[in-house]
Amino acid sequence: MRSKRTLFLIEVAIFAALAYLLDIIPFLSFKIWAQGGSVSLAMIPIFIVAFRWGLKGGLLSGLLWGVLQVAIGPASIYYFWQGVIEYGFAFTVLGLAGIFAKPVQRAIKDGKTKTSFLYIMLGVFIGSAFRFIAHFAAGIVFFAEFAPEGQPVWLYSLVYNCSYMVPSFIICTLVVSFLFNKQPRTLLSAA
Amino acid sequence: MSSSLIIGQYVPGNSIVHRLDPRTKITVIFFFVFIVFFANSVLSYTTLTVFALVTVIITKIPIRFIMKGLTPVWFLIIFTFILHLIVTKEGTVLFDIFGFNIYTGALIQGFAISMRFFLLILVTSLLTLTTTPIEITDAIEEMLHPLKKIKFPVHELALMMSISLRFIPTLLQETEKISRAQASRGVDFKTGPLKERIKAVVPLLVPLFVSAFKRAEELAMAMEARGYQGGEGRTKLRELKIEKIDIAVYILFTLVIAIVLYTRS
């Protein structure tokens, strides 16, 4: 059991590093959003850990990814609590995809491509949805002060955050389920 | 590619700010961010600005470098300023541009809010500019120490953080190597529509993940061979120590807080 624990810690750490990396490599992400947020493949490693190690692994690697962004930069932090929500909470909840770790693994082992796709989509959706809620809420609460009075802040936050979360969600679902179905042995063995 | 991509913002140096205990820096920045919102008079803003600028000068980091790091934020600061100019209608009318009346109150409020913004970003970026990520990790581990009582895995998190930091450059090299190998086979990452580029990424991700798993396994084996068994009784190479200079900084900063609270209207 010991050995698995060490491996768990290291894999979570390395995949958080991968997530950080995939977000900053110029040709892999599309950063046109002024106040942070990007369409990138960065959430993929987090979802892989989540489906491989379950809820705990997913949450930990997500949290780590958020902390990495704050510690090395670039992070768009304007307020303390905004930072906690958008970097501490938002990335951690991506790991909620891990709730579906067991069904996903079972479906893949049985070779049920459609079932596994469904569960992966559900997992990725839950993770993305919670991350979206965090950014959305932070947008309303913290960026409202800078917006002019009378402008519907929630609408701005909704559009702004949807504009990168929706494409990211679609891309992640497709790539993650593709990877799990093409490389089941690499992604599931030893776990 | 690697030369154009700067990972992290740390600028090596030997200034007082660089040598401060990272815990001191984090604490001061934490309270600075807090106190900025209390400033509401010319004097209190001036105090904070002077404190921030003096710190910048002490770090000996080229101003141009800091400003470059703030480029994405300039847009937001200027945007905020213009917005307040247009929307706020207090004080007397100064002049009008294209039918918009610009009020004195708007000018003052816009300037104050932009300044607040600027100060927040400047001071928080000073942390990553003068502190290595490893130092930040150590500091966070020390500061979160009390959480161990409620079984929060502080040590594990700090260890994972160090591993992540250590592997980012390695994995970056790996990514470059694989992307070059795949590009030589005709994969095109850099042009084409989004859909094609996403497809092109799969032959990059598969070998990258496979090698990441391999590295993880090797590291786990190496750590166990050296007797790693969790946080109990583990010692550190670098010990954090509060020096006289840290205490001096705390006293000085308390003074700044006092001045801000005293001068606010």
Give a verbal description of the structure.
The complex is a heterodimer of chains A (191) and B (265). Chain A has 191 residues and is mostly helical. The radius of gyration of chain A is 17 Å and the shape is globular. Chain A has helices at residues 2-24, 43-53, 55-72, 80-92, 101-109, 113-143, 153-182, 184-188. In chain A, helix 2 (43-53) runs antiparallel to helix 3, helix 2 packs across helix 5 and helix 6 packs antiparallel against helix 7. The mean pLDDT of chain A is 81. Chain B is 68% helix and 3% strand. In chain B, strands 1-2 form a two-stranded antiparallel sheet. In chain B, strand 1 (93-97) and strand 2 (100-103) form a beta hairpin. Residues 1-6 of chain B have low confidence and may be disordered. The interface between A and B is large, with 58 and 66 residues.
Features:
heterodimer; A: 191 residues; mainly alpha; globular; B: 265 residues; 2 domains; two-stranded antiparallel sheet; 2 strands; 68% helix; disordered N terminus
Question: How is the topology of this model organized?
Answer:
The complex is a heterodimer of chains A (191) and B (265).
Chain A: H1 2-24, H2 43-53, H3 55-72, H4 80-92, H5 101-109, H6 113-143, H7 153-182, H8 184-188
Chain B: H1 16-19, H2 22-35, H3 42-59, H4 63-69, H5 71-87, E1 93-97, E2 100-103, H6 104-130, H7 133-143, H8 154-184, H9 194-225, H10 244-263
Antiparallel strand pairs in B: 1-2
Helix pairs in contact in B: 2-6, 2-10, 3-6, 3-10, 5-6, 7-8, 8-9
Question: How much helix is in the residues of chain B?
Answer: 55-70%
Mind telling me the C-alpha Rg of chain B? 24 Å
Low-pLDDT segments, ≥5 res of chain A: none
Query: Largest sheet of chain A at a glance?
Result: none
* Largest binding interface between chains: A-B, 58 and 66 residues
The best one-word shape of chain A is globular
Total strands of chain A: 0
- Classify the oligomer: heterodimer
Percent range of helical residues of chain A: over 70%
For the report, how would you describe the main beta sheet of chain B? 2 strands, antiparallel
